[in-house]
């Protein structure tokens, strides 16, 4: 790959990294909102049976978001760190 093409690709990749981070922040905002809802509805004094299921769902959703974005970022950064 020519040096100029490499730098163009790096700029494009940097843009992709910025997009991933902005989507990640939106996902984090959703997670915070969900956590606040679950936390307020599922206090330790709550007798609701589905409270535990909702907390497990929240944890699964959180882990999926982190894993999805982590893989995307690793791929983008790996290419970005290659020398031209």
Total number of domains: 1
The coarse overall form would be: elongated
Distance between the termini: 8 Å
Strand percent estimate: under 5%
Q: Main sheet?
A: none
In total, the number of strands is 0
Residue runs with pLDDT of under 50 for 5 or more positions:
none
**Class computed from helices, strands and strand pairing:** mainly alpha
Mean pLDDT: 74
- The helix count comes to 2
The value of Rg in angstroms is 19 Å
Strand and helix order: HH
Roughly what percent helix? over 70%
Key phrases:
84 residues, mainly alpha, 2 helices, 0% strand
What does it look like?
This protein is mainly α. The chain has one domain. 83% of the residues lie in helices and 0% in strands. The chain contains two helices and no strands. Helix 1 packs antiparallel against helix 2. It is elongated, with a radius of gyration of 19 Å. The model has no long low-confidence stretch (mean pLDDT 74).
Overview in brief:
With 84 residues, the chain is mainly alpha-helical. The chain has helices at residues 3-41, 50-80.
Strand and helix map with partners:
Layout: H1 3-41, H2 50-80
Helix pairs in contact: 1-2
